[in-house]
Every structure is written in structure tokens, then in C-alpha cells.
Amino acid sequence: MNFRRSLRQESVGFQLAPMVDIVFILVFFFVTTQLFSQWETEMDITLPTARTGTLPQRLPGEIIINITRDGSYVVNARRLTESELGTLLHRLASLFPGQPVVIRADRRARYGEIIRVLDLCRDADIWNISFAALPPED
Questions:
Q1: Is residue 92 included in any domain, yes or no?
Q2: 48 — phi, psi (to 5°)?
Q3: With a cut of 70, which residues of the chain have pLDDT below it?
């Protein structure tokens, strides 16, 4: 009687479970980095400081309107005219009621430009508006 089996090993084949784990990790990484890349930060804008300001929680889908020193409007790294910004805000308000908007104005921007953006938001029935500011330096 031969109780020994032959030592021939069969090939394991392609392991699918580790490959699925790696794909999920990669998807998670790219979704996370894409989310952080969407947060708009215009480097040529110097924000004003506020003593009593707090850092709010970022809301999903919020749109950031940058107002530069020369009074131009920048949304998603694209310069817009006043009419283009109004059209964009109307479209966003009709698709997403309660759309959050963050206004990031340069500290040397004219007050009239900020009021124009507020007027455009009001005209588009956008009420969830916040202003960006930096904490004061010690």
C-alpha cells in the first residue's frame, strides 16, 4: 500500500481576491485626491483676517467664487464675466436647491464687486452664502 501522494503541485492560478483589494485601495486613493483637488484656492488672492471667524465644515458640492483684486470673477480656475456668473448661479440653483456658495474676495477688492456677487446670488435664489477669511497672525 502506497500512502504517499505524488509531490506534484498543481498551479494555484490567478488570485482574484488580492487584486480586488488593490483596486479598491486605488479607487479610494484617487477619489480622495480628486476631492482635495476640487477645493479651489486662488493663490493670487490675499484674504482678509477676522478675529472671530471659525473654520466651517466644508460642504459637498459647494461652489467657490473668487473675486480678484482687479474685480474679475474666477470659478474653478475659469474667469467669468458678470453675466456668465449669473447664468452659472441660476443653473446651479435650479439643479441643486440650497446650493452652498463661498465668496473668497481679495482684501483689496472693491466692495461693489462683492455686492454684485451677492446680488447675483440673491437673484438666483441662493441663500447659503459664506465668506472666506483667515485668522489673524499672532
A1: yes
A2: -75, 165
A3: 1-10, 34-44, 53-60, 138
Domains held by the chain: number: 1
- Residue 133: per-residue pLDDT: 83
Nine-digit cell at 41? 484656492
pLDDT of residue 48: 79
**Cα–Cα distance for residue pair 41/67, rounded to 1 Å:** 12
Q: Which residues contact 110 (CB under 8 A, 6 or more apart)?
A: 71
Give buried/exposed letters for 21-39 (b at 16+ CB in 10 A, else e): eeeeeeeeeeeeeeeeeee
Alpha helices, H only, 39-107: 82-95
pTM of the model: 0.65
- Cα 33–43–128 angle (5° rounding)? 70
Residues 6+ apart with CB under 8 A from 130: 56, 100, 101, 102, 103
Distance between CA atoms of 2 and 56, rounded to whole angstroms? 75
Domain-located, residue 137: yes
